[in-house]
Automatic annotation (TrEMBL):
Keywords noted in UniProt: Glycosidase, Hydrolase
Occurrences of domain CBM6 (ranges): 884-1009
PANTHER family recorded: BETA-GALACTOSIDASE, BETA-MANNOSIDASE
Protein family membership: Belongs to the glycosyl hydrolase 2 family.
SUPFAM superfamilies per record: (Trans)glycosidases (SSF51445), beta-Galactosidase/glucuronidase domain (SSF49303), Galactose-binding domain-like (SSF49785)
InterPro entries: Beta-gal/glucu_dom_sf, CBM6, DUF4982, Galactose-bd-like_sf, GH, GH29D-like_dom, GH2_Domain-Containing, Glyco_hydro_2
Protein name: DUF4982 domain-containing protein
A family per Pfam: Glyco_hydro_2_N
GO molecular function: carbohydrate binding; hydrolase activity, hydrolyzing O-glycosyl compounds
GO BP terms: carbohydrate metabolic process
Hydrolase recorded as keyword: yes
Organism encoding this protein: Hyunsoonleella flava
């Protein structure tokens, strides 16, 4: 009888909807095609030829860099396009009496959804989560969901953006009576040392009859603290509860509490939602800045694009945790997701590890990129997107301020602030240099870097530096001469050269082949910048009471904005990070670590292998440390001690050391006792490959990820700091390649399709993602190693290894065959047994066989013209004193305007020819300082006697004047300039030349002097 009653109860529970919500991982087994066809929305389509994949997915990153890529320089020359996703899922009959939501955490952009052939809706913004009630379109058995993603209008952002379903997807099944999505709002109106008040509100859909609302609070350790349960009388119930001795949330103590809210029918749970929250107090004071939990705190933050790092936009939670923890390890306490919200898992991790979040919703409130959200959808959609953003994120203890925009201005700002405060009255609002007069807190971007701003500022409200400092470093690259992005600007802090003349002369590209003066790598001595060094700006914010802190640009390097600092192709990424896109730490990382962390650390730069440097050349040797003092030794001889200082140019310990090969060692002391040491040995040519495996544990709906790091060593196991040989990978087992990345901004090799990636200054990485239910995986690595230029030695080594990634891997013998005469090594190769010598210009080919089958086919060319360019003090003289020049062919071209090379003496890769018709050229220029007047020149040529070829000049879509282009005397090589003055605003600027009535001349470049 008892069993019969139990069975009857279960039947009635199902019949009357008495089961809790279910959340189903919807990430796996999607079908994808990069095409567009209206029939793809139908319930039944032959999609067997489509690719099967797991989301998160980013087809733009997967396709890779392409000259002329749709996203332009801002997007790192990646493409857009239109893609379709389809997925099948089964439902039981009882599910049809429920409410079912499909929840997307992020789809970029203009997504449209169909269920069983029925159109559901469209969501334009690519950086917002959304969900649809699809209940009425479902059926018992097999169901189909189709998603169209439209990135046909490009560029749609000013930096690289993903394409596709780049964030998690869930299917959420609830009873007809349930909590509305994002409706639970937890506030802590009163917090004292002994007691805190917790206010919890919710909104409920469906019938409330005979139901109860219960709330339980749990401590960070999981202990139930208090609860409250009452009958439901209204659809928006609100409770207040007390918590004794609340543990405060802060970056140092990220204490996260849990609230479990339930709708009950008797003791049966109709719906349940778990929400995390924390206790903290925030104050902003004009005179003293930011206060957290009663303590005056400096915000030591970074800006971070969602696409910063090695995956494009398709981050899994294990990889995202690795990224955020890497930044936390540097000592940051805050982060600004720039310039858009991120998927919810980002905030969950920030809650857990302790990062304050300046949560930002938009870049612009109008068009900034040619086809961005500001142009396509802002006016119609901003309220819906702001509501989703704030109601979704407002319970996160990590979020301490809302940011509504970036480098933008509009009359809509006051309305946005009011709208936002109605959704969350507990936090203040700011922006990154947008309508500061309408914000609670004044945010300033690059303009806050200037000496005149800091020393002459009178504040009327609290201030935060939302985007500063702007400095650049290329990992492993050094220069002793200061480099200013736009030449030295007025109002800058001093940044003197480190030596009278430059002592380092290697480059990624021969300066004769640079497209403009920006096409160099950037020095890791903290002396490549717009207007301030990282060291000086930390001193400024630390010692200025009203300065709340900064968000440096950026944490990680990121893809895109390749023309802004680095001059465009072959550069395809931005090097402003403290870590490169592979996640390798730059010297800058260790500077911040020395200032912002307490555990004893030491880091020395530069490396101590300079094979082309004359012995005795004096090298600035720096050591970053948080110890009391550091002692430096060269070949066992002490060069003296130095103490890290508090003044900006004394924050590093420094010695001027005449170069001599050998061992350079630094020892850090606290209270006279050694706490840390580091050393460099001068290395010979690379002859070994060191490979290590880091596992990132699975969590939530995501499988584990793996980071495979390869480094070039010499025969004595010293890192060879100029290593640039290709590392080949053969992947076996239950893992999928995500990307290969080395941090090199000019490497054209596909990050996703190739089977190799070259070392960049001695290091490279492979990123893998475990497949569902993975059991076993391994990789085979191989490399043809040696000095690319054969300067150190002409001896070549081939190194191979089988490496276990997951599970057990049986050892297997590898065979290597190679040739040096161009022959196919599989057919005519000789077995490799020991290093061999080659001559200048030799291409070594090799195959690696496993059990008789070729698993790697490798090739490497060596010679004096291979690899890095090695020059002298005069190599880059031609670029001294030149302003910013932007190639016309890299602009956005309209009408008949086309790139051409059918002339002579043009700069860069070509020029623009209007082909006898009409059109326009639009250039993009970033101004990181205050707005003001700038001299510009257009380099042009034509030989139409008596014709002036008038062209209209627009700046930021406003007509400025009509320019006339007089004949230059030829159509072949006679280039001249038309000068004028324009006003550039702070931040992003568009400069446009448009024909008017007649065709235009050849246009070569825009110069900003």
């Amino acid at each position: 009888m008892k069993n019969l009653l139990t069975a009857l109860f279960l039947i009635l529970s199902v019949a009357f909807g008495y089961t809790q919500r279910s959340i189903i991982n919807f990430n796996n087994n999607w079908k994808f095609i990069l095409e567009d066809n209206a029939s793809f929305s139908k319930e039944n389509v032959d999609d067997t030829p489509w690719k099967t994949l797991n989301v998160p997915h980013d087809w733009s990153f997967e396709k890779g860099v392409r000259k002329g890529g749709d996203q332009g320089q801002g997007g790192g020359y990646h493409d857009g396009g239109i893609g379709w996703y389809r997925k099948y899922f089964d439902l039981e009959k009882e599910s049809l009496s429920k409410i079912t939501y499909i929840n997307f955490d992020g789809v970029y952009m203009n997504s449209e959804v169909w269920v069983n052939g029925n159109y559901i809706a469209k969501r334009p913004y690519g950086y917002i989560s959304f969900r649809y009630d699809i209940s009425k379109h479902l059926k018992e058995g097999k169901n189909t969901i189709a998603v169209r993603v439209d990135n046909s209008l490009e560029p749609s952002a000013r930096w690289y953006h993903p394409c596709g379903i780049y964030a998690p997807v869930k299917l959420i099944e609830v009873n007809t009576t349930h909590f509305k999505p994002n409706s639970i709002f937890i506030k802590t109106p009163s917090i004292t040392e002994n007691k805190a008040i917790v206010s919890i509100g919710a909104e409920i859909n469906g019938s409330l009859k005979k139901l109860k609302y219960e709330v339980k609070l749990f401590s960070p350790e999981g202990k139930e603290l208090t609860s409250k349960c009452e009958k439901l009388a209204v659809a928006n119930p609100a409770y207040q509860l007390e918590v004794e001795n609340p543990k405060l949330w802060s970056p140092k103590t990220p204490n996260v509490y849990r609230a479990v809210t339930q709708i009950l029918d008797g003791k049966r749970v109709i719906d349940e939602v778990e929400t995390t929250f924390g206790f903290k107090t925030v104050e902003w004071k004009t005179e003293t800045g930011f206060w957290l939990n009663g303590e005056n705190v400096k915000l030591k933050g970074v800006c971070e694009h969602w696409e910063g790092g090695p995956l494009g936009g398709a981050w899994t939670k294990p990889m995202l945790r690795w990224k955020l923890q890497s930044l936390k390890d540097m000592g940051i306490n805050a982060i600004r997701p720039s310039h858009n919200p991120t998927p919810p898992m980002f905030y969950d991790i920030c809650d857990e590890i302790g990062l304050l979040v300046m949560d930002e919703i938009f870049d612009g409130w109008h068009k900034k990129a040619p086809q961005d959200y500001g142009k396509q959808a802002f006016d119609e959609w901003w309220q819906r997107d702001v509501k989703e953003w704030i109601t979704r994120d407002r319970n996160h203890p990590s979020i301490f301020v809302w940011s509504l925009g970036n480098e933008t201005h509009s009359d809509v700002a006051p309305e946005m602030v009011e709208f936002g405060k109605n959704l969350d009255p507990t936090r203040l609002f700011t922006s990154g240099a947008g309508n500061p007069e309408d914000m609670d807190i004044q945010g300033v971007n690059g303009g806050s870097e200037t000496k005149s701003f800091i020393e002459g500022k009178t504040l009327e409200k609290p201030f935060i530096s939302t985007e500063a400092p702007h400095t650049w470093q290329t990992r492993g690259y050094y220069r002793t001469q200061t480099w200013w992005r736009d030449n030295e600007l007025p109002g800058t802090y001093e940044l003197p050269n480190l030596t009278e003349k430059e002592i380092f002369f290697y480059e990624g590209i021969n300066p004769k082949n640079w497209r403009n003066r920006k096409q160099r790598f950037n020095s890791s001595y903290d002396n490549a910048t717009v207007r301030v060094s990282a060291r000086k700006y930390w001193e400024v914010m630390r010692d200025t009471p009203w300065h709340s802190g900064h968000f440096r640009w950026t944490g990680f390097d990121y893809y895109g904005e390749a023309g802004l600092v680095h001059g465009g192709l072959p550069f395809n990424l931005f090097m402003g990070g403290a870590l490169d896109v592979a996640g390798f730490k730059k010297d800058l990382f260790y500077f911040y670590k020395s200032q912002w962390t307490q555990e004893p650390m030491i880091h020395m730069l530069p490396h101590w292998a300079h094979p082309r440097m004359k012995e005795g050349t004096v090298i600035p040797v720096w050591v970053y440390s948080n110890a009391d003092e550091v002692e430096l030794f060269l070949n066992g001889k002490s060069l003296g001690k130095d103490k890290p200082g508090t003044v900006w140019n004394q924050m590093q310990c420094e010695w001027m050391v005449p170069y001599k090969e050998g061992k350079l060692e630094a020892i850090a002391y606290i209270d006279g006792k050694e706490v840390k040491r580091t050393l460099f040995n001068t290395s010979e040519q690379p002859s070994k490959l060191k490979t290590s495996v880091q596992k990132l544990e699975a969590e939530d709906s995501f499988e584990a990820s793996y980071i495979i790091t390869s480094e070039s060593l010499d025969e004595n196991n010293n890192l060879y700091p100029y290593g640039e040989n290709k590392i080949y990978y053969n992947i076996q087992g239950d893992v999928t390649k995500v990307s290969m990345e080395n941090g090199n901004p000019i490497d054209p090799t596909s990050r996703t399709k190739s089977d190799f990636r070259a070392l960049f200054f001695g290091k490279t990485r492979l990123f893998l993602r475990a497949q569902p239910n993975a059991k076993q995986a391994s990789i085979i690595t191989g490399a043809i190693l040696g000095d690319k230029a054969l300067y150190l030695s002409n001896e070549i080594t081939i190194d191979t290894e089988v490496i276990s990634v997951l599970g057990t891997t049986s050892t297997s013998n590898l065979e290597v065959f190679y040739t040096t005469n161009g022959d196919n090594p599989e057919v005519n190769g000789q077995p490799y047994s020991k290093p061999f010598s080659i001559s200048d210009g030799t291409t070594v080919k090799a195959v690696v066989k496993q059990n008789g089958k070729v698993v790697l086919a490798m090739e490497e060319t060596f010679g004096k013209n291979e690899g890095l360019f090695w020059g002298d003090e005069h190599s880059a003289d031609m670029w001294i004193g030149r302003g910013v020049n932007i190639s016309a062919e890299d602009g956005i071209l309209e009408g008949t305007a086309k790139p051409s090379r059918e002339a002579r003496r043009f700069k860069g890769t070509g020029f623009v020819d209007f082909k006898g018709g009409e059109g326009a050229i639009t250039w993009y220029q970033e101004n990181d300082g205050e707005g003001g007047d700038y001299s510009i020149r257009f380099r042009y040529m034509h030989n139409n006697e008596g014709k002036m070829h008038p062209m209209k000049l627009y700046v930021n879509d406003e007509y400025i004047r009509t320019l006339e282009f007089k004949p230059t005397g030829g159509w072949e090589k006679e280039w001249k300039f038309v000068p004028t003055i324009i006003t550039l605003k702070s931040g992003a600027n568009n400069i446009k030349l448009e024909t008017t009535g007649t065709s235009g001349p050849y246009i070569d470049e825009l110069f900003i002097d």
